[in-house]
Every structure is written in C-alpha cells, then in structure tokens.
C-alpha cells in the first residue's frame, strides 16, 4: 500500500474517531486534540499497519493508548504527595515498625495456590497473559478464538479476586 493510499484511507476514517474521542475526553477541544494526535501517530507509524487488517480498530487503539498515556502524564504531574506530616514519625521509636518477608511469603503462597486451583482452561490463558503474551498470541497458540481467550482470562481474574478477597485493601 502506497503512502498516498494509506493517507486517503486514514482521512476517510478520521471522522469516525471524533465521537469516541469526545467520549474519552468529555471536552470538545481535548477531543479535537486527541484525534489530531492520533492521526499524526498513525501517519508517522504507517509502516506498522498491516494491510488487510481493520484500520478503524488500529486507529481506535492508537487513540485509546494516546489518551491513557496523556492521562497518566497529567496524573503524575498533579499528584504531589506531601510527606512532611509523616516526618515526625521518622526518628520515634514508639512508632517504629519492621516488616519481614514472612507476610509476603504467605501472600504469594496463597496466590500460587489460588492460581493452581483454577480450572486448566482458565489457568493456561491467564498465566500466558500474565507472563506477557498478547490476547492474539494466546489465541493462536491455544488455537481458540480471541473472544474465548478474553473470556477465560476474565473468569480467571474474577475467581482469583473472589478467592483472594481477604487481601483487599478496602475490606
């Protein structure tokens, strides 16, 4: 696919990105900026697009990832932690607490047991995803549809969350 053909295809799909960008940003100007940044990234990374795949989905993925990255940057900049109120505890013996690795060992043992108790059809895709495989790679290796992979990983997470609920911070 030539650069001109790619640019034409991208321009034809660009208008469909605006509602999704508006949904993400909740602001007209930010949505326009997000679409523009998405288009720029798509055009500069045209070599990464595989002809014959879904261009619209590829652009939505770029847009979503751009939004998430921008959101994380803003969040990191705006979250200043004021630790000065905790400095008084620094040199006081009465509030001195040490942690050993025993607690972490118990937690990891419980997590490993919970994973081992998962049904094999849920454990395998979950562990593959955990070690870094993408959904598509898992689907290809296990020779199952990608929707099934996502569903099994979701079920595994749900079961683990239920079994390990004693470790929830808000409980």
From TrEMBL:
Ranges of residues in domain RNA polymerase sigma-70 region: 10-76
Supply the alphabetized keyword list.
Answer: Sigma factor, Transcription, Transcription regulation
RNA polymerase sigma factor 70 region 4 type domain location is 110-160
Q: Name one GO molecular function term.
A: sigma factor activity
Pfam families noted in UniProt:
Sigma70_r2, Sigma70_r4_2
The superkingdom of the source organism is: Bacteria
Q: Which SUPFAM superfamilies match?
A: Sigma2 domain of RNA polymerase sigma factors (SSF88946), Sigma3 and sigma4 domains of RNA polymerase sigma factors (SSF88659)
Q: Which GO terms describe its biological process?
A: DNA-templated transcription initiation
Family to which the UniProt record says this protein belongs = Belongs to the sigma-70 factor family. ECF subfamily.
Q: What is this protein called?
A: RNA polymerase sigma factor
């Amino acid at each position: 696919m030539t650069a001109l053909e790619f640019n034409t295809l991208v321009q034809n799909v660009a208008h469909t990105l605006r509602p999704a960008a508006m949904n993400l940003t909740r602001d007209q100007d930010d949505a326009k900026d997000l679409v523009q940044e998405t288009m720029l990234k798509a055009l500069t990374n045209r070599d990464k697009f595989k002809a014959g795949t879904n261009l619209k989905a590829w652009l939505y993925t770029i847009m979503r990832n751009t939004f998430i990255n921008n959101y994380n940057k803003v969040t990191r900049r705006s979250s200043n932690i004021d630790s000065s109120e905790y400095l008084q505890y620094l040199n006081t013996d009465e509030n001195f607490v040490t942690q050993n690795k025993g607690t972490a060992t118990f937690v990891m043992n419980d997590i490993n047991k919970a994973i081992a108790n998962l049904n094999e059809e849920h454990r395998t895709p979950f562990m593959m995803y955990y070690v870094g495989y993408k959904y598509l790679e898992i689907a290809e290796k296990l020779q199952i549809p990608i929707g099934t992979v996502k569903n099994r990983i979701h079920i595994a997470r749900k079961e683990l969350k239920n079994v390990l609920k004693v470790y929830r911070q808000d409980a």
